[in-house]
Write a structure and sequence with these properties.
This protein has one domain. Helices cover about 45% and strands about 10% of the residues.
Length: about 70
Amino acid sequence: MEAFVRHCRLCNESIESSPFTMCTTCLYESEQVRQFISKHPLVSIEEISRATNIPFQKVEQMAELGLNHKYKV
């Protein structure tokens, strides 16, 4: 029987079956963003991207997916 493979909802990379919908890299980056937002509420996506060194498009995608809230676009 083949292993069930799915794709990360952010970067679309293949990941092995796990309870998470994101790869380990995206999980880590999402947590960085969440922590930054908790310390700096109502921060813009551009500011988050600069402060965390995560590409703007990826942070924007996190916002669109509702992974973190309190974004100011």
